[in-house]
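Deliverable D5.2: sample structural annotation.
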Amino acid sequence: MSRQLRSLLRTVNRDKTLATTGFVSVFACLIVIARTPPTDGYELSIYSAYPAYFWFLIIASSACGIGIVIRQALAAQKSRWWLAGLVLVIFSSSVLLGLPFFRGYAFFPNGDTMSHVGMMKDIVATGHIGAGNYYPVIHLLAVSLMDVTDLGYAAVTNLLFVFFSVVYLFNIYLLATVVTNHRGQALLITAFACPLIFSYLHGGIFPSILSIFMLPLLLYFYHRREKFPSEQVATILLLVLLTILITVCHPVTAIFAIGVIIVLNLMKPMYRQIVKRKGHIAQDSRVTVSDYIAPLISLVFFLIWLLPNADILKRFRQVWAFLFGNVGTSPFAFLEDTLGQAGLTTSQAIELFIFRYGAIFMYGIIAGITALLVLRMSVSKKTRLEPAQFNYAVLFSIALVASLFSLFGYTGETGPERISRFFLIVAPVVSGLVLYGISARQRPLSVGRLKPERKILIATTAIIILAAGALSILSVYNSPRVMRTNAQVTRMEIAGTAWFGSHRTSGISIATACLALGRYDDFNFGIESATFPRAERYPPIVPSHFGYDKNSSIAESFEFKDSYLLTSERSRIYGMHLPANVRPRFPQYTEDDFARLGADPAASQIYANGEFEVWQVYGARS
């Protein structure tokens, strides 16, 4: 038996072992899910609903799939086992993202996604897109899917965010196939894209994320146009359609996408100059008028579609005011202020950073290092620099600047996870391109012949991807681990807010304890199709302990103003997601507080369904 055949058999056996272990693990997870009864109310965290070994199995199944893809990327002998690895990653991620549905949540998640359901209800109720809906693609897709499948809003929402996470991985693979010259290089890029690196944003309807997931497909057609000139007309048409589609998905992503294409065009003459200085033969990469057709048409469409929108103009004015009038607060300043108020210990702050942003930070660091390596390669006359390596190192640098501006400046966007999407979408490509290029300077993977430095590089790459995958699984849902409340929406909350919306008296202020009533109004009644005006909220935050630690009556806490007070099970356990030393700094509502509220003559419970209550607070002085 030849040495190559023995090597191939060893590789196949290892991949088979990983695949078997991974699929057994994910099927074991399905058995645990089937044997776990659904929840009948609000729970602190979905992580506590399943045993610890369940999470070990889901991490193991994902790690086995990623491990197969990495092994195949660096293997000496080609095989199709990477497909098994990719299927395993998709299967385990789908099971993970489908947990709210399996758990029996009435809806998931709360927040933005509830308002997007309201926009869907506007379309169903009126037959047209709402005037304030400037990113209707996802809403039209959801409404069409409901019409075809007869599924409800909760099921369609869950199906869509699982589907788009799979589409993102597929789009990255497509892009990798056209920017690389080696099968292994494409697979390593795909391996970097396997973890759910966008954290909780994988589990909801967020147009900013769903639009960025389409960017690799846009780049695929951009590079395909160059690689296959005979298809230039078709690919330019697809480029235009995709950029228009991204524009009606999210305006900020649209600006970024237009900028990306322009930057890639500008990089062509720069790369030619670098190659000529090295004394190498440059590829024919002249910029033509056709290179700017897609971004120009998209820019015109952007101006026509979005500038008449009052909300978009307001955002532009806010950005201008921040830049030149020092008005507004940056997301970083807000986070810094919140962290200062929380009073976390150093160890708690470090742990929070690791679980919330650890995977994002690792990808940013590894991609930043590879971009610096490309810079070094571009000034060295000895090292060969591929055009894709140069292009994506520059793109990553620009994307990182865009994310940093959004973090330390003001673009109307909040949350480091959402802000990081610009460089995260490029990080797998530049990391895979450069790290494979370094590894491939020797012959393909053959452990017995690897130099120590190459072993270290391969091991470090695998550890980073697998660690990011594990951290992503442990942060894709809100929990005490990331100090965020569960985004679950219960049936009692939906029923209670719907009742309240139909029975409340206009003109009376509303106070909510840990409940974003506006989102529930959007969800229950639509946004523009709602038949009643938005209510005034007062006070914005219900005092901790309903104010009984300072006042004898809740009427005094509400400054003797007639009000409604909405409470829920979420209110009762609020603060449990925080460490014990931090809870006193945030609102808390104990059972004793609720007992005092029930006995307070200034408050009367006018609705209750087990986990949601409506109280009438009488402000008149006795």
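Annotation notes: The longest helix spans residues 346-379. The two ends are 98 Å apart (CA to CA).
The annotation will be released with the project's public dataset once the embargo ends.
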